[in-house]
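Folds abound. Consider this:
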Amino acid sequence: MTWVKICGMTNLEDALVAVEAGADAVGFVFYEKSPRCVTVETAREICSKLPKEVEKVGVFVDRKVEDARDMFHRVGLSMAQVYAESVGEWYAWYESDEMKLMWAIPGRVLNREFFISLGAAKKQITALLVDSGSGERPGGTGMRFDWKGAKIGIWNLGSEVPIVVAGGLTAENVNDAMRTLAPWGVDVVSGVEASPGKKDPEKVRAFVRAVREMDRKVG
C-alpha cells in the first residue's frame, strides 16, 4: 500500500485525526519561516500521545546536523526529512542511530546531472521526497511540480530508492499523481488544511480514502 504522510502538525487534535483516518506518518515542521512551525515541546507532547507504529517525521530546513539530532531525540521522532543541498553530512548519523532519513528535493532538478550527483546516496537514504518548493519556500507551497516532465526520472529513481511525492496534492488529484508517477508514498500539507497550520478533518479523511481507493484499484 502507498505510504501516506500528513505533514504540518501543530496540535494533537489534528494528529489524532490523521492517525484515525489511516495515515502512516505525521510530520512536524521545525523551520521558523513556516506558518506550521512547532516548538520541540509541542511536538514532543503530541508524539507522546500517538501510537508507536505511526511514523513521526521531523522536517529540517538548512539545519545543522547536531541541532537536528538533538531535537529529533528530544521530541521522539523516527524520521528526519531534510531540505539541504546534499545529505552527505547526515550519513554518519543515519548509519549510527535508530533513525530514517528522507532527502527532499524540488521536482525541477530531476535531470541527468542530478542522477549523476546522487550517486551512492540512493543506497544511503530511506527515501527521496520530490517536492515543488524553492529556496524561499522549500515546501508547503500548495503548488504542483511538472508531473509529466518528471515522471520518467521518478520511475527510474523509484527502482533504486523509495520515492515520496509532495506539492499541491489534494483528495481530488492524488489519484492522478499516483497514476502518473507511481510513487512509493505521498505527502500532503496545504491540501488538507482549513488554514495554514490547522487541518480540515474531512479533507484529511478524504485524502487518505482517495489513496486507499487507488491502492485497491491497482493492487
